[in-house]
Amino acid sequence: MTIFSFIRKIGISLAAVISLSIAVPATAQATGEKMRFFSMNGRIDVIAGTRGEYHGKIKWVRYGEEQDILMMAPTGKTLAMLTQKNGGFELMTSEGHFLQSGSSEELLQKALGYQFPLNGLDYWVQGAASPLSAFKSKPNAQGQFDSIAQDGWDIRYGQYFKPEGDVTSKVPRQITAVRGDLSIKVSVDNWIARNNQ
After folding, report:
1. Beta strand 164-165 with 182-194: parallel, antiparallel or unpaired?
2. Which run of H or E residues covers position 105?
3. Of 26, 41, 125, 150, which has the most beta carbons under 10 Å away?
């Protein structure tokens, strides 16, 4: 069974792999420190060579150590909800299918049928490199990352902007991660971030 036939069968959007778009202060980019309270709305495009492609929407909310990622069709119909709480992950589809794991990597392996570097992407979409492995980067004129090469992935950024809320840092408006024939693009429409809840 291919990734995309599995998605069609149980109603999981490939957007589930993008538990993404975490804000990060410019001073924290080197350490990969993450903002703890934010809400982001955006669009996601996934192209996986001849295996197919997906275009949809994502809403992601982080509140401390917990988070909810809502995946939607282009029309806004809910396809799946990925939740992190009590140290574990749960994935519920619109058809009522339920997956649970203590590891986001393990959960997505079960859901998608292949290993996906969510732990790395969790930092890359912030405009930060993961502290878990070596990387190479290229800065833009403002000292933010223009591109990162890490774990076999090439990550490129569009412009940065200041989100709503009481933070002073800027976040990427667009993130594209490519490895082989898999391309993941996240475009942010709206972002609200706070230093404290």
Report:
1. parallel
2. helix 104-112
3. 125
pLDDT higher than 50, residue 152: yes
| DSSP code per residue over 66-130 | EEEEEEE-TTS-EEEEEEEETTEEEEEETT--EEEES-HHHHHHHHHSS---HHHHHHHTTT---
| pLDDT tens per residue, range 81-98 | 878 888 888 888 777 888
E runs forming strands in 109-181: 135-139, 145-150, 153-157, 160-161, 164-165, 171-172, 174-179
| Segment holding 92, helix H or strand E | strand 88-93
End-to-end Cα separation, the chain, in angstroms: 43
pLDDT at position 12 is 43
Contact 71, 60 (CB under 8 A): no
Tokens of 172: 């990427």
Residue 86 CB contacts under 8 Å (≥ 6 apart), including other chains: none
Q: How far apart are CA 40 and CA 42, in angstroms?
A: 7
The answer to whether residues 124 and 153 touch, using CB atoms and an 8 Å cutoff, is yes
Distance, CA of 50 to CA of 123 (rounded, Å): 28
> How many secondary structure helices (H) and strands (E) does the chain include?
3, 14
**Cα(80)–Cα(72) distance, rounded to whole angstroms?**
7
Can you give the pTM of this predicted structure? 0.76
